[in-house]
């Protein structure tokens, strides 16, 4: 399975800022000689990259057409008063992005428009958390990188409006791939809400998004981070989210993923400062023959840190979900509190989930727990609703939605919740009347 890697590394770049040349070269060097992981690779045991290999996806995206304004309907979130930056097939679209000036102390710029000082900061922090030497897809991302987005929030600055960062794909004449890149630098005492919104047009997609997001969260800083994967099922996505937390930093993460032909998200959080806290909530909803794979790892490297992680999945039809959650308590990381829960609901006898929660502990004064469940709808709950005049179909819709509604309610943004609710309800009820109590 080396053809894709060779073709991807050999792709010619155009339009990249000159200061990215060294990173492009580094990516090609790091990726040279490597091959795509197979199901014989432990971390890819349940996820095949055959769709990526067979489809090619090494071609570059076509240049943006003149008029992209109609695409706005695919990412508008009603009542969300946000500063918005939009990329179409990996290319920055000024016409779809907000024209509002950024608040004082905030830089939100595409790589192609970075000042000399901003470019220096970007170069200093890119790959500080991601690992191009040990992770092939990060190396490929570096080798393709011609555009990305940089967010810097200065010390003690609080951004009142959320930042909606949109990566939209459209179908093209041939399969293509692009690098998505986000670097967030939260300085001491700063606060922000970032919504990463991956979406697409409604027609069948033939894009491969290779994404890397790095979140550097300074001392006493807080970041509310949403990552919404709402692409059409034909789109391929392999993503990597890396975060580091300094002293008393806080990360609140909400992750949502619909299924696709290939959707794999790696999420790693490093607790580097005492008092840091991370809360992660996630929902995945594959159906038909779709596939979703979440691999998470929480690295507690110092004492007095805490994390709470909860992921839930509803797997329908002949779909497959994979969840691998790992908590790693390093030597000396005493007084750590870390808890992980993964619950799954199968709505078909042909649906499948492979879940593996892990604890690796090298300290003796910690409070840690992990657990996973896989089940079908509770017959007694179904019977209870039916005895109260609710039809069986509607009862199933209510119980399915209730299974994930608790996590949906933990998403702090009310406009985001109201945007997601009807989309998720439609997954459970093809007849809108069956979901009338959910909207």
Tally of distinct domains: 2
Using only C-alpha atoms, the radius of gyration works out to 21 Å
Number of helices: 8
Largest sheet, strands/sense/barrel = 10 strands, mixed
Low-confidence stretches: none
Strand content: 35-45%
The rough form would be described as globular
Helix content: 10-25%
Number of strands: 19
- String of helices and strands: HHHEEEHHEEEEEEEEEEEEEEEEHHH
Class derived from helix and strand content: alpha/beta
Mean pLDDT: 91
Notes on the structure:
This protein is an alpha/beta fold and 439 residues long. It has 2 domains: 3-273, no CATH class; 379-439, no CATH class. The strands form 2 sheets. The protein has a 10-stranded mixed sheet with strand order 2-1-5-7-9-11-13-15-17-19, with helices on one face. A 9-stranded mixed sheet has the order 3-4-6-8-10-12-14-16-18, with helices on one face. The longest helix has 19 residues, at 392-410. It has 8 helices and 19 strands. Helix content is 19%, strand content 37%. Helix 2 packs antiparallel against helix 5 and helix 6 (379-386) packs across helix 7 (392-410).
């Amino acid at each position: 399975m080396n053809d894709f890697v060779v073709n991807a590394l050999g792709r010619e770049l155009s339009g990249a800022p000159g200061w990215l040349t060294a990173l492009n070269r580094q990516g090609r060097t790091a990726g040279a000689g490597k091959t795509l992981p197979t199901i014989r690779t432990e971390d890819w045991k349940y996820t095949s990259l055959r769709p990526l290999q067979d489809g090619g996806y090494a071609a570059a995206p076509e240049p943006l057409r003149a008029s992209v304004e109609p695409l706005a309907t695919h990412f508008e979130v009603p009542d969300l008063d946000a500063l918005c930056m939009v990329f179409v097939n990996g290319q920055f679209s000024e016409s779809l992005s907000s024209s509002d000036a950024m608040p004082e102390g905030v830089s939100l710029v595409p790589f192609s428009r970075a000042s000399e000082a901003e470019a220096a900061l970007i170069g200093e922090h890119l790959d500080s958390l991601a690992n191009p030497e040990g992770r092939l897809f990060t190396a490929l991302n570096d080798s393709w990188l011609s555009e990305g987005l940089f967010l810097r929030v200065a010390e003690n600055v609080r951004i009142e409006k959320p930042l909606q960062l949109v990566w939209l794909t459209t179908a093209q004449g041939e399969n293509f791939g692009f690098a998505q890149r986000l670097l967030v630098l939260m300085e001491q005492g700063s606060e922000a809400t970032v919504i990463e919104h991956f979406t697409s047009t409604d027609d069948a997609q033939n894009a491969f998004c290779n994404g890397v997001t790095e979140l550097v969260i300074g001392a006493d800083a807080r970041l509310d981070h949403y990552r919404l994967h709402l692409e059409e099922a034909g789109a391929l996505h392999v993503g990597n989210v890396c975060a580091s937390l300094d002293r008393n930093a806080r990360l609140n993460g909400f992750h949502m993923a619909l299924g696709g032909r290939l959707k794999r998200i790696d999420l790693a959080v490093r607790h580097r400062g005492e008092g840091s806290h991370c809360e992660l909530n996630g929902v995945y909803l594959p159906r038909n023959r779709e596939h979703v794979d979440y691999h998470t790892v929480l690295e507690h490297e110092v004492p007095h840190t805490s994390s709470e992680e909860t992921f839930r999945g509803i797997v329908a039809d002949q779909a497959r979900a994979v969840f691998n959650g790992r908590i790693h308590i390093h030597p000396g990381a005493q007084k750590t509190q870390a808890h992980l829960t993964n619950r799954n609901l199968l709505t078909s006898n042909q649906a499948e989930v492979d879940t593996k929660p892990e604890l690796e502990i090298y300290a003796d004064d910690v409070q840690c727990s992990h657990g996973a469940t896989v089940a079908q709808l509770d017959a007694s709950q179904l019977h209870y609703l039916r005895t109260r005049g609710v039809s069986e179909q509607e009862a199933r819709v209510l119980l399915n939605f209730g299974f994930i509604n608790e996590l949906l309610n933990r998403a702090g943004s009310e406009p985001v919740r109201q945007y997601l609710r009807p989309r998720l309800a439609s997954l459970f009820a093809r007849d809108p009347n069956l979901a009338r109590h959910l909207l």
